Amino acid sequence: MMAAMAGDGVLTIEHLTMRFGGLLAINDLSFSVGRNDITALIGPNGAGKTTVFNCLTGFYKPTEGRITMRRANGESYLLERMDDFRISRFARVARTFQNIRLFAGMTVLENLVVAQHNTLMRASSMTVGGLLGLAGYRNAEKQAVETTKYWLEKVQLTDRADDPAGDLPYGAQRRLEIARAMCTGPELLCLDEPAAGLNPRESDELNSLLTFIRREHGIGILLIEHDMHVVMEISDHVVVLDYGEKISDGSAAEVRADPAVIRAYLGVEEDEDAPEVEELVSEAVPVTAPKAKAARSASKPKSNRRKPKAKGARK
Amino acid sequence: MAEKAQNTAHAGNDVGAILKDCVFASLIALAIFAPIIGLKTESAPGGLILNQRWGAVFIATAIIFFGRLALHILFWSRAGETKKKASAASRLGTKLEPLIPFIGVAMFTAAVILPWLPSTDRYILDLGTLILTYMMLGWGLNIVVGLAGLLDLGYVAFYAVGAYSYALISTSVFPMILPHWMMAWAFWLALPMAGMLAACWGLILGFPVLRLRGDYLAIVTLAFGEIIRVVLTNWISLTNGPNGIPGIPRPSFFGIEFTRGDNGFAHTFGLQYASIQRIIFLYYVILALALFTNFFTMRLRRLPIGRAWEALREDEIACRSLGINTTNTKLTAFAMGAMFGGFAGAFFATRQGFISPESFVFMESALVLAIVVLGGLGSNIGVAISSVVMIGGFELFRNLDFLKQVFGPDFDPSQYRMLIFGMAMVLIMVWRPRGLMTRRNPTIFLKEKKAVSGDLVAQGRG
User: Fold this and answer.
1) Residue B450: which of A58, A130, A162 has the nearest Cβ?
2) Complex ipTM, two decimals?
3) Is A143 an 8 Å CB contact of chain B?
4) What tens digit of pLDDT does each residue of A212-232 get?
5) Contacts of B446 in chain A (CB under 8 A)
6) Residue B1: pLDDT band with limits 50, 70, 90
7) Which CATH code, of 3.40.220.10, 3.40.50.300, 3.40.50.1240, 3.40.190.10, is assigned to A1-92+186-315?
8) In the predicted model, what is the mean pLDDT of residues B278-301?
9) If phi over 0 gives left and psi between -120 and 50 gives alpha, with beta otherwise, what is residue A244?
10) How far is B293 from chain A, CA to nearest CA, in Å?
């Protein structure tokens, strides 16, 4: 299954390496994201997940490696060579941020209209047509508002369209950021911890939003997530990073059973702590793996146990 | 609700007490000041005589009365409410904000009819022209600082480029290439060129500073402003150095000059010749230019480019993740701001008829920036109000002759302008750190237009 996806995938990362001075943040990482798939990128803090995102959205230039984006229309782009804004504009990769980056002083509607900047800029003939108030621009703006209405409805923010984005509650800001990314018309959506800080109900809603996006818009989704509820329930494919290296790659069930993953999250070979991650995983998805049963009495998950070693590499 | 009602009742009781206290304080002041200020001994031929200065006593007592009243209103309010009361100025501003459209219309009407008011003389018209010039500069700078959030301390450079472009084109280039009859059009032909050249300099400044943010950007733009001035002073073969460029053509009424002769404005329109006609015309020219700047920026704000400027001010990284070319966006902001600076510069040159590098010192940049910051970043009506307050306020100091009664005939109030200016800025920054008009109007709305509170709007860091 993996082999089939590699050829057909919307995004292929090959031998990606990122060095910050002496720090090796990502080491020879290869994986691919299938079109119409939800791929989760997980790993302990400081594993280099956000660095991968920054490389593939052009905020960092990778030291080595190739990142290929294949669009549905057959065009393909080598992202490691492109400027960040071109990646969004031409390769159609959209992203959200770990610490939400909305335009807080602009209204919800404006946030979504700004996301359609390039379409509107062309329609306004680089501002001249817009200044003259030509019909072409007015129609394009109406069209843009229709698009925003569609997404506002999907993220349940229609009532707050005219409120400043900075006034929204946290969960709504997360949803708005996803809607804003979708307004750029992406073919690959990269979400950096979309469920961080959401309550269980909100993360359920997030799950259904993401499955809706995949189903109706046929785009690939790549997400970084610590919330195993989200990861295990909706992802078709999980990639596990540790110290910048890929330690596991496969379906959610395969990854969950992989001893390398358990070690990475707990950092010990001994079985002493090992059950914890399974507790964490089995909380999210009821599994019948025999190992999980032994671990019911384990304490709270502490996947953040390890100090973020690659701190310089983050953000 | 109940609490509010109680507060109002409380305030009603207080008014009497406050007034009583103020009157008491001024009575004490009167008792003290009457002998100290009111009577002055002076040596006269026959010995000492007593000079009586009751006017000064009255002014000093009035200062005490109103000062104490102000202290009551602003600071000495009931405990627990101190914070609310302390921001009396801020509440005043917040109350003003719903009135913005009316203030705008009122200011526009006042500006249009000003030359026809009976009390208007040449001095008022000159002052009006000066205020409008700064208003236009403020609106131009507002694009760069208020919308795009790029702190520019060297805006005067573009003003200088516009002024020198117009001066050089109209005195050196046009006489060679234009037929004589077209010289009357010199201003109207050179005005767009001056704007274009200034915009080019905006781009030239923009390129190297694209990667700079915040303080660094401010320092480089400050240096740029100074470099332009130093070049103008030292490039004597081109600019005539510190001696300046004299004999800059005056604008014509679309080809008809303001001269006393058969082809002059007055004769053509069957009027009596008067030198004030030119002044009135200049006033309307700058009014039209300033309104054009305002209209243009307001329209740009509602276009993708303007929204991109504001998004850039809010979050540059998010902009790039949405496919906005931030390089071009910053450059267009610089170029647009510079273009309006250039227009204002060309107008300045034609009004003065003479320019020299002395007119383009850092103080001008600081004044324009102060107007923008005081008015509220991004608010065009705020800039209009603050330019009237600042430039008009400066001029007021020339007319405070009654202060000479208090402080003696050697007192020159205009020398205290900068002191008062500084104090006013400090007070504004304490009470309304985001300027007079802080709320941001959304550029597009679905159901209802709600202004965005100033606390949420970013001020830009580069």
Assistant:
1) A162
2) 0.80
3) no
4) 998 888 889 999 988 887 888
5) 109, 145, 149, 158, 161-162
6) very low
7) 3.40.50.300
8) 92
9) left
10) 13
